[in-house]
Amino acid sequence: MTTEISQTEALTHLGASTAEAVARVLEMFVPDGVERGEVSVVSDAQDPFANLPVGGIAASVRYVDGVTGANVFLMPHTCARTLATAMGAGAEEGPLTELEMSAVGEASNQMLASAAAAISVVIGQEIEISPPDVRVIENKIDAADVWGSAPFACATSFTIAGEPCRLVQLVPSAFVVRMARAIDELSMDQGTVGDADGPQGLNADGTPGVPITETLTNITLRFWAELGRTQLPIGTALELPVGAVVDLDRTADAPVDLFVNGLFFGQGHLLVTEDGEWAVEVDSLSKPSTRKPSLVGGAGLTANPTTV
User: Fold this and answer.
1) Which among 12, 26, 129 is positioned nearest to 73, based on CA atoms?
2) Mean pLDDT over residues 154-171, rounded?
3) CATH topology of domain 4-216
């Protein structure tokens, strides 16, 4: 039988590992602009969704492999726009556009998939999640109807570009029991679960789990090369015939900009492989940033994103 103390420890370790994974992905979008707060275990008398940021955004995934629970990231409108801007889709003002919501969904997919991977590490079993759901938080919302419920919950505060955000985890009993068992099984010479690289649990056979940093290296990101941009009136774009030639703002031999998940990280040039496929040779690298190519806000023509 799991004790109250081991339940609290298990939830704290689960919360910390998940929050660390989310923070690392957020830092890709907002370099040097992410701060993670403490993990708090939510008691039965507390509502983990109290004081929702009305008008803000909630991004969530549910567990779908025979257990109930969810990870929900709550952020104000301005923070969602910051993420959309980092993805190259931010507007200057007004309600979030459909394009911005799509960009936030892509960022949330990376965040919450990383969170699921982190949980898989600490409990030693694969976690299946649903596609992310991104919605605007209305004045009246029944959290249980939207995100379901679970026997346990924990919350972690974040600050993104100065804006307060919150990660709420609805944790099924199976996760808590597995984590508590892992804590009990760890010998004193292994120390407390968790180190500088993040929490590490036990596999099903009792062997030490893989550190989170190693697990995160297998997470899929979107990479693309941007050839150039131009601006076209909507009417002109709609009337383009098949075979039309559209001039871009760069010469054929100019470097192409390289992006990962919407963050500019270097330049390169195009090559054709022996198999006749396009490839990019990286010429220079820089610190990931939200740099936009020329014609900011214009209608961009880009190469198709490729998963790597």
Assistant:
1) 26
2) 90
3) Chemotaxis protein chec (3.40.1550)
